[in-house]
Amino acid sequence: MPLTLPYPPRVNHYWRRVGPQTLISREGRTFRRNVCALLGGGGPRKPPTCGRIALAMDAFPPDRRRRDLDNIQKPVLDALEHAGVYADDSQIDLEHPERSGVTDALRRLRCVPGVSVIRLSHADIVRHPLVQDIVTAYAAREG
Questions:
Q1: H or E stretch including 22?
Q2: Burial of 46 (0-12, 13-18, 19+ CB in 10 A)
Q3: What is the CATH number of the domain that holds 46?
């Protein structure tokens, strides 16, 4: 069942520490309410206690800031659990979210005869300084 959710708040904006307690922030509670409303009911419902749920997420960040994709899973899973989609984390088979299909294509096509992947380094780029800067930035992120 495809479901389009609003982009979740960052993890450090979803939960708040108040003394020894960890609480869900106002922003987190708003996100939870929105997820419950999108699932049709407006509030939590009794979750199924058995069965597996496969969950795949495609992330479309609302702006160009750098984001850690692992941190969007936690608020989404919490909101879905609160909405009654599942009872326990052990029911979830989670596919890692991806920003694009390039990583998936590289993984799938690496064993196809006639297809090869050529990775360029900073030294291979001689045409334009901007392209060199882009390759350097990606290398720094991966390294």
A1: strand 21-24
A2: exposed
A3: 3.30.1330.70
Backbone angles phi and psi of 32, in degrees to 5: -60, -45
Within this chain, do residues 81 and 113 fall inside the same structural domain, yes or no? no
pTM of the predicted protein model: 0.60
Q: What is the pLDDT of residues 47-98, one digit of tens each?
A: 676 778 888 887 777 777 777 777 888 898 889 888 888 888 788 887 665 5
The pLDDT tens digits of the residues spanning 107-116 come to 788 788 888 8
pLDDT for 127 beyond 60: yes
Closest-CA residue to 35 (of 66, 89, 75, 65): 75
Q: Which domain holds residue 138?
A: 104-143
Tokens of 1: 């069942």
Q: For the chain, how many structural domains are there in total?
A: 2
Query: Which residues are registered as beta bridge partners of 16?
Result: 23
Looking at the fold, whether 112 and 129 belong to one and the same domain comes out as yes
Task: From residue 98, give the alpha-carbon distance in Å to each of 37, 60, 102, 125.
Answer: 26, 9, 9, 27
